[in-house]
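Protein data:
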Amino acid sequence: MRNLVISIVACVLCLNCLCHAVTTIPYPPTMIKQPPHEQLFQVSLTQDEQDKPFILECEARGNPEPEYRWTKNGEPFDFVAEGGRINQQAHKGTLEVTTPYDTDEGVYQCYAENSHGVSVSNAVDLIKSELNSFLDEETKEEFVIEGEPLSLACKPPTGYPKPIIFWIIQSNTGALHSINNSRITVDPDGGLHFTNVTMEDALEDAQYACSATSMFRNEYKLGNKIMLRVEAAGIPGQNEVPPTKLYVSPPNIVALRDQKLELSCIFGGTPLPQITWSKKGGSLQNSRVAYTNYGKTLKIRRTDFQDEGTYVCSASNGVGPAKTQSMAVTVQAAPYWINAPNNTNGAEDETASFECVAGGIPAPDVEWFMNGIPMKDVKPNPRRRLDKSANVLTIEALKKSDTAVFQCNASNIHGYVFRDFYLNVLALPPTITERPEPITSAVMSSMVTLRCRVFGAPNPKIKWLRENQDLKGDRFQVQDSGDLEITDVRPQDEGEYTCYASNKFGDIQASGRLEVKKKTKINVPPENFEVAAGKSATFRCDADADLSLQLNIVWLFNGQLINSDMDSRMVQASDNSLTITKTVEADSGVYTCVAKTELDQDEAAATLTVQDTPNPPKIEDVQCDGLTALVRWQPMGDRRAPIQSYTIQFNTSFTPDKWEDAFVSIPAADTSFQVSMTPWANYTFRVIARNKIGPSEPSGHSNVCETPEDVPYKNPDNVVGKGTEKDNLVISWTAMPMIEHNSPGFFYRVFWKREDIPQAQWKNTDIPAWEQNSFIIPSQPTFKPYRIKVEAHNSRGQAHTTATEVIGYSGEDMPLEAPKNFNRMYVKDARSAMFSWDPVSPESVRGHFRGYKIQTWTVDEGEERLREQVVKANVTQSLVTIFRPSSRNLVRVLAFNDMYNGPPSDVIEFTTPEGTPGPVAYFDAIPLGSSALYLIWKKPLEPNGVLTGYNIYYREVKGTELGEIKARKPQITDPRETRAKLAGLKPKTKYRIDIYATTSKGEGEKMYIEVQTNDQAQHSPDEPYFVWSHLPDVDGKAGVRVTWVPAVEGHPGSHFFVQYRKKDDSVWESTPPEENQDSILVTGLELGSLYEMRVVAVDGPFQTPSKVEEFETGGMAAVQAPESGENFATAAWFIGMMCAIALLLLLLILICLIKRNRGGKYSVHEKEVAQGRDIEYPEDGGFNEYTKAATAPEATQGSRTSLNSSVKGPESETDSMVEYGEGEASKFTEDGSFIGQYGAKKKKEDSTSPSALATFV
């Protein structure tokens, strides 16, 4: 252990010595911070203005630490002599100028020097920034004619840098407003140009002002104020001006490489000229070219030699020939480095070579310096050679005295580039400055670099070994830096690698291990998605990675990381899927799943296309031609779903707020369509585009088309003649809207005459109100035919089509005859019977003979609730199918016309036979445990006879298929029963349950529900409750009925059994489990004994017992009779008890009578109905509080498809009387079983102990 510590300490000391040796290697100065080629400064103009300090940066590193000096305009600069306003930062050459003076302008250069050489910075041209004021001038007035082009000159002030010129609107209050108008443009020299002048350009309370700003000084100046006066043209809007040149760039332009190039082409004219650009022999369709000033300026942000050529702009506005202007662009360049040297360490006896090659137009001149001194002034060295033609400096057989800093400068008329570099001649053994990592990890198929940085002079030779073996193959490359690069990493590349470095002064080595990991790979890539706007889109992605690496999956949108915190619509789920909710068109793009570890990553991309309704089209033109209009439009984008069709809509001056379809489904390829119009209207059009997502917003409306007048093109439609009273005729028609009038002065002309009178003459009247759609002719005979027509007229004349003539009738009257000999021929079944009768004469009908009505009702329903069956007029016998089964039905027949029923026939009464019932009025099921259901229903509203019971069937539901049907056993044979238990079911299984009410005729209509049982029980049922009552003694044995009350609000269990024992016995006796009923009879108990009893709720393998209750058997049977007369006196207690019982019974009878008499004041039925329920009534009688109203509404019949269905029966799901304060016992039927426990939850009931109920006899 001690030896290990000593070794570690030795390694640390050795490493420290190596680092110290590297950091103490002497080397010449080299610049790390230096000033730019040009720097601006600002001088305070007044004493109140604060000074604006600035710095001239200069910082170098070297060993030993360099010292600094400056020159100004080529002469030594003594900043100390500036009286303390210029200081130099400690250990740096940076100058801080706290109070700038005008005299500070000049060319500065920084020198950093130590014993090994002199490093020189860029030469910085320090220039004072200034912005002078405009010359004082009065506001000028400029007069121009509307529609003419106009140019306003600006005389900008001098300043440096060159001021930026813009124009503003200055109101008389001093407020300033910018100008942004496609007709108004500012040229590079500051001129303001109006393509054409409008009356709105004349400002009553403001003038145009030329402004100059200096971005460096953050200030602006105002001047050249002009008041514009515009004279109206002779014919407003009609003066046209061909393109007129206002400003174009010079014909020959020199642009500099990497600098901005702007070409201007400003033309005036009316209409507004369109400017197009082209390049001779080239194309402008690339991303490097942009257009500003509404296309009047061509802009190239960074000019390159390929931009040289002739550019042509063309201006046209449809008035006169197009005007063109050519601009020849020549591209030159300030000097730039092609090859430039860097700092170099050399060893003695080696050869060093430096190349300074610069490009530029014109070709730059290259000068060489050594330690800041021109090479021509440096002491000659026979080993140093400068090839000026190739600009290569070579030094052979290096010596330590050759250590120096060299500079090369390339310059032309556009500027210069400067390079400062050193040669450091050393003699050092190899030193590893960056050792290989102890463990480097890489994934298969990747490229990995093992670090090994070595310093030495001469440069050490580096070799790598793996497990002490030479590396073979092109996959292993040793870099100039000493690093080992391995491409296409394979599992066999794993192992120990050694970096070995040597030169003539020594050698050194270091090792590290490479571990190869499994490559990260996406195995479930996202798929392209197409979705309508507003819907959700989900991309799924899954990947595998090496188990030793942490895998993270992130999502990118168009290359940018998605941040769910910034956009809550983007949700990345735990399975790494990405969901975009409520998509919008802007969500369209490329979504990339990136699965990454610390070593590698894999990507997979998918495209989301969010499709939306198209953009509104743009109407380009509407050509009006009489009664047709040619509408032209332009699509403005389909929003990623191709346009399928267009719709043209119109409105008129008659309905300005209502748009109607002129034509729909115009093919997407068409962008023009001819629309027909009606006379005497002002039409406006708009266009709607449609794609598969839906219709676009409408386009803007078009200009107005006016159509000429004409006669009406049609007469009114739907002309009808019909009396509303027995002595009138009403002629009605559909009013014609104003769009159909075709001219002013519109009116209707109504004609009529008797059709049944030969040679009858037409009568007519004019209706001037176009909204009127009827005319009443009074005092007419009853039900006579008339020939009728209605014409349309206007100021141009009658409609050019003939009005259609129709036959109408005057008013009807009540029929006179009742059908005779109405007879029941036979009864077919419980609902239908055949009847016959004699026909009535058509004349007696006094109207349109529409047939006969057979009316029926039952004695219980009353005539006010009769039902009708209609038969045709030529029928005198019919099978009537609307009778109530098992009822006394009354039936009659009558004739009728359109307005009246005739007198009825005699009424026939007969009784229909019994039929099958209708569906139950309500049906529901509540899961009990995991294998049972508790069924609740209400008897049919239409029993159609005497109910005999209910049949229940069930089957499994598997998707859309139904399993084998099974019958519940036993079926229900008590028609009063309204609940049952269905046991023996599978857990977590969906069942369809059918229920049929039955009569002696068989099963009635079915009602069914679908419900799912609970999942397999995972814990014991909740503690159950129970109630019990005594049974009559049989053969000297007692018995009790035990009714289970499950914990319905929790986990009740699926069935139960009873355990009982005599008091103080230790062993419980158990009944068999009861799966189908909720009661068990416990018999065979000894009389006069005290027993303990409990019920046990069961669900699967779990059981839960209830609390234990005690009960005593025997009652009066347990009293022994006296053995002789002498014991009779001892039975007085028995006589007293019997008297007490008699008094109690008498009191109970009195209470019942009182409550019976109070029943009319407390209508339970009405309260039930008010709460949305109804009460089932037993066949036997009861207190009149529960008498059902005769007019109780009928409930809707049908089938239930789901337990959660919103369609409920007309009655409550509970029949409990607790809501009326009748106590807990109301929940039990006369046999003691429970009902209503599984209905809707009610407010918490007062608790009553089961033992208290059990003692009620």
Notes: The mean pLDDT is 86.
